[in-house]
Amino acid sequence: MTVYAPRVLFAAPSSGAGKTTVTCAILRAFHRRGLHLAAFKCGPDYIDPMFHREVLSVPSTNLDLFLLGEDMVRQILLEHARGAAFSLLEGAMGYYDGIGFTERAGSYDLARATRTPVVLIVDGRGAAQSLLAQVKGFLTYRTDSRIAGVIWNRLSPSLYPALQQRLEQEFGIRSLGFLPKMDAAVLESRHLGLVTAAEVDKLQQKMDCLAEQAERTVDLDGLLAVAQQAEPLSQEGLELPERGRGRPRIAVARDRAFCFYYADSLRLLERLGAELCLFSPLTDAALPPGCRGMLLGGGYPELHAAELERNAPMRESVRAAVQDGMPCVAECGGFLYLHRTLEDAQGISHQMVGAIAADGKRTNRLQRFGYATLTALRDNLLCKAGERIPIHEFHYWESTDSGNAFQAEKASNGRTWPCIHASGTLFAGFPHIHFCSNPRWAQRFLEACVQYEEAQKS
């Protein structure tokens, strides 16, 4: 089936150009016009989709070519974009930056795979005519650049008329307006990127301020026209495993400390029969009643280590569940929570769950970062020995024991290392996975949850 989905991809020459700021301005402006919208993020970033959801009050999801592959990316795009008047794909890093010194799995690769027109977000600080040279370079670096227009960010309003005229006359693409420097709408960041949406002071006022500026100085109608030029895509039905037995209740940690989940991973679990029950390791006294499996996602436990330590009843509840054999998937921050201790940002050690005999240590630099492929060295909760899982890592904290159930191979340079604590009921480590990479992993997890439930009844 062929599906028509108006869409654009926002890209930039490099990180820090303001893609997220411009994205929020546009989404908020179109939302205030009453348009049905959809938003997406290129790559594995969890935090930018949180901003999309905060702006839109609807789910936003990731499109990651390395984790998901082209076919699954296109199907997820069309599933969420169906019926939307405008879909915005937010790029990552520089437009032509991908894995290693290639374009693979980057913004340009996503535009190619989804046949999406691109709007380049160019930082206008500290330059004038040189901005045009920068745009020309991006237009000509690849003959199929797909760049259809430019939005200038942090631009002096006095420069815009000349830039617009020269861009459209010399390059034949649209100048779609600009945002001036707006100190009152700055979005804060920390070591993993932007702070989460829930932490931004006066977020709604900042978003309204951005939207009002976009209404004045961005060509929103022209942007819609570019989106409507997107090529139709062919949609195939998502091939899912058969829905498993029962309806196991899965406890999903979600609060200020644990908030990194791929929305489509959770949706897949529900489509395969799971009932997801949210809980807070920070404030709840115990796991939700009747749960038969547990997801401990990534986040910022190191920033809330003292509060997690004070909640001893929850730590004991989680430890008892893991030791009793409740199936558990724990990623990055969730993995650190299962440790004996965890150092906070000041280097002070705090008691954690103690289900894994290791300690979480603060470091002063980024540890293993980027895409890799895991190979299972033995059968485990999610897969059989020899199966391969694409993953992403990004963390500053380290463990005294990262596990050895899998061998990881970095996508950019082939470097290898052991990782993951895994058994028939546990998958815990720094790597982030996406269940839609291979829905059989989700099916195996849920089947283990059903078996655990049956054992509890016998």
UniProtKB/TrEMBL annotation:
Coiled coil: none annotated. It comes from the Bacteria. Its cofactor is Mg(2+). InterPro entries: CbiA/CobB_synth, Class_I_gatase-like, CobQ/CobB/MinD/ParA_Nub-bd_dom, GATase_3, P-loop_NTPase. It catalyses: cob(II)yrinate + 2 L-glutamine + 2 ATP + 2 H2O = cob(II)yrinate a,c diamide + 2 L-glutamate + 2 ADP + 2 phosphate + 2 H(+). Its EC number is 6.3.5.11. CDD domains: GATase1_CobB. Catalyzes the ATP-dependent amidation of the two carboxylate groups at positions a and c of cobyrinate, using either L-glutamine or ammonia as the nitrogen source. Belongs to the CobB/CbiA family. Comprises of two domains. The C-terminal domain contains the binding site for glutamine and catalyzes the hydrolysis of this substrate to glutamate and ammonia. The N-terminal domain is anticipated to bind ATP and cobyrinate and catalyzes the ultimate synthesis of the diamide product. The ammonia produced via the glutaminase domain is probably translocated to the adjacent domain via a molecular tunnel, where it reacts with an activated intermediate. HAMAP family: CobB_CbiA. This is Cobyrinate a,c-diamide synthase. It comes from Anaeromassilibacillus senegalensis. The gene is cbiA.
